[in-house]
Amino acid sequence: MDDQSHLLEEVRRGMIPAHIYNDEEVFRLERERLFSRAWVFVGHESEIPQPGDYVVRRVLEDSFIVARGEDHQVRALFNMCLHRGMQVCRAEMGHASHFRCPYHGWSYRNDGRLVGLPFHKEAYGGEAGFRRKSQTLLPAPALDTYNGLIFVSMDPDAPPLRDYLGDFAFYLDYYTRQSPSGIELRGPQRWRVKANWKIGAENFAGDMYHTPQTHTSVVEIGLFREPKAEKRKDGCTYWAGNGGGTTYKLPPGTLEERLRYVGYPDVMIERMKQVWSPEQLDLVGHDGFMVSAASVFPNLSFVHNWPRVEDSDDVLPFISIRTWQPVGPDETEVLSWFAVDAEAPEEYKALSYKAYLMCFGSTGMFEQDDVENWVSLTSTAGGSMARRLLLNSRMGLLEDDATVVPPLPPERFSGPGEAYVGYGEYNQRHLLRRWADYLERPAESAERIHVGRGGKAVTA
Ligand code: FES
Ligand SMILES: [Fe+2]
Fold first, then answer.
1. C-alpha 456 – ligand 1 centre gap (Å)
2. Nearest to residue 334, comparing CAs of 292, 288, 303?
3. ω into 298 cis (within 30 of 0)
């Protein structure tokens, strides 16, 4: 990328060089400068509640066994055998006290420690020749959690996750902490789309503008109580810390009435009142905004929506969590989970799951509408003409960069960050500005650890 600074400058003013959505060189930089540093979501603690439970997740090509050890601690262990590099664990999830490498049979405890080598004495001279004790599968350089959400970073000096999330944590609680018990997950469903990973992240962060066009049919069949998709323009988008999202404007009413309008039963509303701060409650009860889709930089997104699930006027909310896992410049693996408050009534959980599947599961109606756009965009972005085109991502800005509407004042929006009513691409620009900040910083030489034959860890 010869004119990289020029490219990043264009991105920062909201004019997006079209080829960044399908470009080998850009993808190489994302690998080297972004995914090597940012906090990346890999799972939720509720997926591995018991010692020995594990899931296998990736950050780009790096596969990690995310396991809860006998000491209840969650670890992310690089899924590569210390011997000849075979993947130690081939299952996607399960329960195991040990992992045995399929190649030559070295075995590791679920905390990563090497405990077994076939023919240890004959082949290595026993403990005197090769001490097993000091050997462990490589841990992820950094691991941290928030509300049970597990993130890893390839940067051992990554800032604490809470600092990285910043004020976005305020909004994360609506999705992941509706009671003291937090959420439980079902899934993930996993599928691949021939689309660049950034497109979904941008869409979920702030694209309220596409709803009336792309999702017309979903509204026409009456899946939502709101008769018109244009209703989205009454909501606002917000950006805070390292994430941002969209909201719907709720009809007038008290906090309880508004949460009931969204479809929450009273028992759940009571628990929300216990765990949410006065400001978090005010955003709904006083300001009348309810969070909908959102993204945390770089590739974690959330959905909260409330369709009709049965033949009545009643709606019911669902929450979904997903990652846009890059496979290449033109391909993304989507991991999509259904999330629900662990204390929710069982009947609610069942209907909420149905609501999720109808809308955003692998065959969900929204899913299908959205992806066709993104695949088409990606394939066109890979051609030569796309290199001459700057896409206009300046919605909400005037020529002189002043905003079309002023930001919401604190008395109308109780959350942190900056919020604007109506259509705008504030959040897409925020997301890509973060992207540009990462891409312009050259990677420091990464510390590599080689485990020598004698069992000594050597830092080069
Ligand atoms: S590669 Fe794992 S035991 Fe040889
Ligand atoms: Fe959509």
1. 18
2. 303
3. yes
Measure the CA–CA gap between 254 and 89, rounded to whole angstroms.
51
Q: Is 84 in the pocket of ligand 1 (CB under 6 A)?
A: yes
The two structure tokens encoding residue 25: 């060189």
Residue 181 structure tokens? 């018990």
Ligand 1 contact, 260 CB (< 6 A):
no
Question: How far apart are the C-alpha atoms of 255 and 132, rounded to whole Å?
Answer: 59
Q: Report the 10 Å Cβ neighbour count for 384.
A: 7
CA distance 262 to 372: 29
State if pTM tops 0.85.
Answer: yes
Closest ligand 1 atom to the C-alpha of 117?
3
- Can you list the domains of the chain with their CATH numbers? 41-144 (2.102.10.10), 167-440 (3.90.380.10)
Distances (CA, A) of 386 to 12, 19, 23, 279, 383: 18, 5, 10, 45, 6
Separation of first and last alpha carbons in the chain: 29
Alpha carbon dihedral 407, 408, 414, 415, in 10-degree steps, equals: -30
- Residue 268 in contact with residue 309, Cβ under 8 Å? no
| Residue 73 CA from chain centroid, whole number | 22
Q: Whose CA is nearest to atom 1 of ligand 1?
A: 84
Please indicate whether residue 89, judged by its CB atom, sits closer than 6 Å to ligand 1: no
DSSP state of 430: H
From first to last of its 460 residues, the chain has per-residue pLDDT tens of 445 789 999 999 999 999 999 999 999 999 999 999 999 999 999 999 999 999 999 999 999 999 999 999 999 999 999 999 999 999 999 999 999 999 999 999 999 999 999 999 999 999 999 999 889 999 999 999 999 999 999 999 999 999 999 999 999 999 999 999 999 999 999 999 999 999 999 999 999 999 888 988 888 888 887 767 778 899 999 999 999 999 999 999 999 999 999 999 999 999 999 999 999 999 999 999 999 999 999 999 999 999 998 877 889 999 999 999 999 999 999 999 999 999 999 999 999 999 999 998 888 888 888 999 999 999 999 999 999 999 999 999 999 999 999 999 999 999 999 999 999 999 999 999 999 999 999 877 544 443 433 334 333 3
